[in-house]
Amino acid sequence: MGMSDATFPVYLRAKGDKEIREFRSLEHLRSWVEAIDVENDEYEGWDSRGSQVTLQLQEGNSVMAKSLEEVTAKEEVLRAFNDFATAEGVSFEKPPQPYDLPKTYACVRTAVEEARNRKPWWRRALRRLYLLSRS
Hints:
The chain is of the alpha+beta class. The protein has helices at 26-32, 35-39, 74-87, 101-118, 121-134; strands spanning 3-5, 10-14, 21-23, 43-47, 51-57, 63-72. A hairpin with a 5-residue loop joins strand 5 and strand 6.
């Protein structure tokens, strides 16, 4: 199976989690992921073309994002976006151009942020505490 450098932006989520993060560059991705989590295969992801992405460690624990060229997973990434939206209480509707993943993610992210902001302040505070406890 051939691999090439992932086409950014890249969308990642920790396995078993619903939240998806967008990374616009390799440097941004490297600042967020931890080498031990890459080593333990803790992430699943997709690039902007809808190809599955795998993270690899290079010399000095430098993280690389590689696309699996033969594995297009556009429906899978759309389901992941839907799972993210649903977990946040947002109704996800496919945009007119559903395979424009950057635009689709932007729509989902905006709807999620709006839903989060509508929650009472104490629920937002509890969520922040939860996120801090996981990092």
